[in-house]
TrEMBL record:
Organism for this UniProt entry: Caldovatus sediminis
GO molecular function, one term: ATP hydrolysis activity
Domain ABC transporter span(s) in chain numbering: 4-234
SUPFAM superfamilies in alphabetical order: MOP-like, P-loop containing nucleoside triphosphate hydrolases
UniProt keywords, alphabetically: ATP-binding, Cell inner membrane, Cell membrane, Membrane, Nucleotide-binding, Translocase, Transport
InterPro entries (UniProt xref): AAA+_ATPase, ABC_SmlMolc_Importer, ABC_transporter-like_ATP-bd, ABC_transporter-like_CS, Mo/tungstate-bd_C_term_dom, P-loop_NTPase, Transp-assoc_OB_typ2
SMART domains hit by this protein: AAA
Protein name in the entry: Polyamine-transporting ATPase
Any GO BP: putrescine transport
Length: 354
């Protein structure tokens, strides 16, 4: 059975459809990341699952049980807010114990479970401190302990790493992953950071204007984006437009060559189609390709940007399109103005649905 099941969930605020008939299934123990731009409905979905909002239509089931009639505290769900929402006047211990006290858990058990939760997030010894006496990373861990101490079946995390320094984010991300495995709870994390979502989650879902436009394992969504929005949102794919030929190839004037994807295009001859091509799948070599090349375009290097491990080159193709090419900096950067040939494997071309 799925842990969480959302069926046709809709929520409007006045004229705004924050969620527009959303279907989603989360498996037990899954780490799921919801990605989307500002205002796409990410927080609204979390608030509906937690019970802070009521859906206008649709169903929300947790382990088969209807969540909607239950008040927030009766749901086996916890939510960690982006701001952490710690009580400033309470100690770390009392912040973490809060949910247990409200649920009427006896004092001894409360002590034991708070100690367990603080050990889980490695905060032993800081029980008596107040939130203002902690670092940002420690405050984040108090918020995590407070969410986990009630042993939720599902933990909702709204931008859990957003308030941390860049340096802390990676380490804290690994910790989140380990906590998720240790507790066995399902995690649903909201983020607008695509790299973070892909690094942490078993599956990601991309929200666009209140609809989930694609759901799948990070590598699958990244390699095979379904729409222009997903392609652009996840790491800036190159988009190439062309016309389908009778033999299944795609004439692409802006690339100045024939595109031949490995998978069937699935459109009739003469139909327009757009293909996505990831910058790191493009190979760059100096010199000219033959004029009738397939999956090989000629162009001139317009810009080169060093980005540490990788360098990105912008190559203006003779057909007019500009392609982003990224490759390990260790391979050496091409010179600006150099004539180059770009090639890519057929399976790197993903046909977009729109
Ligand atoms: N209480 C509310 N009253 C009116 N409009 C709201 C309310 N909550 C959300 N909205 C609107 O619903 C839409 C979705 O908002 P939501 O907060 O879910 O987006 P989000 O994806 O979490 O965005 P962000 O990344 O900026 O937090 C937005 O257009 C927002 O302005």
């Amino acid at each position: 059975m799925s842990l969480l099941r959302a069926e046709g969930v809709a929520k409007r605020f006045g004229a705004t459809a924050a969620l527009d008939g959303l279907d989603l299934e989360i498996a037990p123990g899954e780490f799921f990341a919801l990605l989307g731009g500002s205002g796409s409905g990410k927080t609204t979905l979390l608030r509906l699952i937690a019970g802070f909002e009521t859906p206008d239509a649709g169903r929300l089931l947790l382990e088969g049980r209807d969540l909607v009639p239950l008040p927030p505290h009766a749901r086996p769900v916890a939510m960690m807010f982006q701001s952490y929402a710690l009580f400033p006047h309470l100690s770390v211990f009392d912040n973490v114990a809060y949910g247990l006290r409200r649920a009427g858990v006896p004092r001894e058990e409360r002590r034991r479970r708070v100690a367990e939760a603080l050990a889980l997030v490695r905060l032993e010894g800081l029980e008596r401190r107040r939130p203002h006496q902690l670092s940002g990373g420690q405050r984040q861990r108090v918020a995590l302990a407070r969410s986990l101490v009630v042993r939720p079946r599902l933990l909702l995390l709204d931008e859990p790493l957003a308030a941390l320094d860049a340096g802390l984010r990676e380490a804290t991300g690994f910790e989140l992953r380990a906590l998720q495995r240790a507790t066995g709870a399902g995690f649903v994390m909201v983020t607008h950071d695509q790299a973070e979502a892909m690094a942490l989650a078993d599956r990601i879902g991309v929200l666009e204007r209140g609809r989930l436009v694609q759901v799948g394992p990070p590598a699958a969504v990244y390699e095979r984006p379904a729409t222009r929005f997903v392609a652009a949102f996840l790491g800036g794919a190159n988009l190439l437009a062309g016309l389908v030929r009778a033999d299944g190839g795609v004439d692409c004037a802006e690339a100045g060559c024939l595109l031949r994807p490995a998978a069937p295009v699935g459109r009739p001859a003469g139909a327009p189609v757009t293909l996505a091509l990831r910058p790191e799948r493009v190979r760059l070599r100096s010199g000219e390709a033959p004029a009738d090349a397939v999956n090989a375009a000629r162009g001139t290097v317009a810009e080169v940007a060093f980005r540490g491990e990788l360098s990105t080159a912008l190559v203006r193709l003779d057909g007019g399109a500009t392609l982003r090419v990224s490759r390990p900096s260790a391979e050496g950067a091409p010179a600006r103005g150099a004539r180059v040939t770009l090639t890519w494997p057929a399976e790197a071309l993903a046909v977009l649905a729109d």
